[in-house]
What we know:
Blueprint: E1 9-11, H1 20-23, E2 29-32, H2 39-46, H3 48-56, E3 66-71, E4 91-95, H4 97-106, E5 115-122, H5 123-126, H6 130-133, E6 144-150, E7 154-158, E8 163-170, E9 173-178, H7 216-221, E10 224-228, E11 233-236, E12 241-246, E13 251-258, H8 268-278, H9 284-299, H10 303-307, H11 323-337
Parallel strand pairs: 1-2
Antiparallel strand pairs: 2-11, 3-4, 3-5, 5-6, 6-13, 7-12, 8-11, 8-13, 9-10, 9-12
Amino acid sequence: MQVDKRIAECGGLRPDTIPDAVLRSTTPLVLRGLLADWPVVHAARQSGPAAAAYLQRFERRGGPPVVATVGPPGIDGRFFYNDDFSGFNFRRENVPLGVALNTLVKYITDPAPPAIYIGSTTIDTWLPGFRAENDVDLGGRDALASIWIGNRTRIAAHQDLPDNLACVVAGRRRATLFPPQQLENLYIGPLDPTPAGQAVSLVDFAEVDHAKFPRFAQAEAHAQVAELEPGDALLIPSMWWHHMEALTPFNVLVNYWWRQAPAWANTPMDTLMSAILSIRDLPAGEREIWRDVFRHYIFDYDEQAVAGHIPTAARGALAPLDATHAQALRTRLLKRLNR
């Protein structure tokens, strides 16, 4: 797959003074060299084994194992479904982090290694102290910091609800992004089960079958790409589709996830699943009625219009939400779902 449009870049930024406007961007941005002074980046520039040794300095002794996703050499690094979608083309193993790192180092010079991927591992749990030397200031955002370690792997295009600052600390990566509106053109697979929690594009970017996926050409026209070196970061705004490809035999990425929504807010995926259960299979005329109901109460909701005819104490679910009101609404929903 060839993509001509490059993701916009910002340079000259420091990890302790990232402008708020950058962190609030609704379009992707490459922050070139943002992490150039991180010690782990310096180690990675020496070699993969040096980066692995640096990480092992912080490994939590006696801590829980990490989950390693492992696939045979024949999958070419693409973690995906099996041929009939009855399962997946990989297995998961629980192993100590140090064992996973040593295994990756062992295979660095192997021309056909198994695909190995340690994904979304919470840094503060497995690598305490790492962030004292390698971190970014996100302006008070309550972000989850995770580390991703592997060899040459390809992660199918998917969306994440949080905003994401993806920081390349070892190896090289190619990121291909699509606007959220390209949903219909990316041929998204099942909502469940999924390879790693999010629904993914079924298109193999390494060998696109345009006859099978003809609308993908429209997605390609909107694609943006960036190749990232150690020390570079990529801001991926909420719900942008992203395909991540690790290009070297040893790769490490640190990412920070945060939401613009309040901490008490449910994920919209809960609403989508509930709507599939209650609305999707209604007669067409009824679905249109509910489309208008959602427009009125959700997408075009006007609190001032409600204030004009419903007393404050009687607004119930239409009242402004806070943690207390959200919990009360959640409790009511659970009762209804469990009838």
